[in-house]
Amino acid sequence: MTGQFPTPPVEIDTSKPHPARMYDWYLGGKDNYPVDEAMGRQMLALDPRVPVMARVNRAFMHRATRWLAKNGVRQFLDIGTGIPTEPNLHQVAQRIAPDARVVYCDNDPIVLVHAAALLRSTPEGVTEYLQADVRDPATIVKEARKVLDFDRPVALSLIALLHFVPDEDGAHELVDRLLAELPSGSHLVMTHATADFTPQESAAATEKLKAAGVTLALRSRAEFSRFFDGLDLVEPGVAVVPDWHPELGEPVPGQEDGVIPGYGAVGRKS
After folding, report:
1. Is the pLDDT of residue 6 over 70?
2. Predicted pLDDT at 85
3. What average pLDDT score do residues 67-76 get?
């Protein structure tokens, strides 16, 4: 990291679970708190494959980043980064394109605590982190412009993020506002949980998280596809997450034990 962005004071709220820290717990990390583990265990009681789902999302990010880097994309804006877990997006991109520039963004200050130590760039590339919420696209764009050239294509990565942003907060409009700032040749990269395959478990999970102060906005295939309106979908289009270009990575152990309840896609802005 090169220190382009000011470092805000770190105030970590451990009174309620946070999706980034729960995700870290699912992945076997140690940067979470008892409240995150407790809620994570409630999710596992509903569906013991939740950790597999987390790893499947991460594997999609690796495959999509490889595809983009191999197809000439050299700039990445990753919102909802989560706690760094190797390999991180910038490591995947910079192994293919050492000069790739990556800006990470998350709203949990614990991510910032670990960013300086873990998000190290190649000599040719640039890796930066900013603390902001996806609901504040103006700040994200303003700060990201300090590192990324918005006259050149940017890959906007929103992995396992927008199912925490309800329609009342304008999830589709937020994506539209971010994409509007990006030039032709840019890409939208997304995964999103759905209740299409597990309606009862999903309804129970939604209620448990709501009681703990976490909003879960699961969307159908049609609702997920709306995020890509006006974009050219990369083949195979909208797919169940493990089915998107599986040849670009190794399968996640356990992903074959039933349908993973989430969709993934990559779309290109003309």
Report:
1. no
2. 82
3. 98
> How is 132-144 classified by DSSP, letter by letter?
--TT-HHHHHHHH
Furthest C-alpha separation in the chain:
49
Torsion over CA of 69, 136, 265 and 115, rounded to 10 degrees? 50
Extended strands (E) in the chain: 75-79, 101-106, 126-131, 155-158, 187-193, 232-233, 239-240, 262-268
Helix or strand or coil: residue 196?
Answer: coil
pLDDT beyond 80 at 260: yes
Task: Indicate the range of 21-35, 55-69, 163-177 predicted with least confidence.
Answer: 21-35
**Stated pTM of the model:** 0.92
CA 259 – CA 195 distance, rounded (Å): 11
How many whole angstroms separate alpha carbon 53 and alpha carbon 58? 9
**Secondary structure (3-state) at 104:** strand
Instruction: Find out whether 108 and 80 touch, Cβ atoms under 8 Å.
Output: no
| pLDDT value at residue 165 | 97
Residue 5 pLDDT exceeds 80:
no
- Does residue 132 contact residue 138 with C-beta atoms inside 8 Å? no
Q: What stretch of H or E contains 174?
A: helix 171-180
What lies within 8 Å, CB to CB, of 195 at 6+ separation is 202, 203, 218, 220, 261
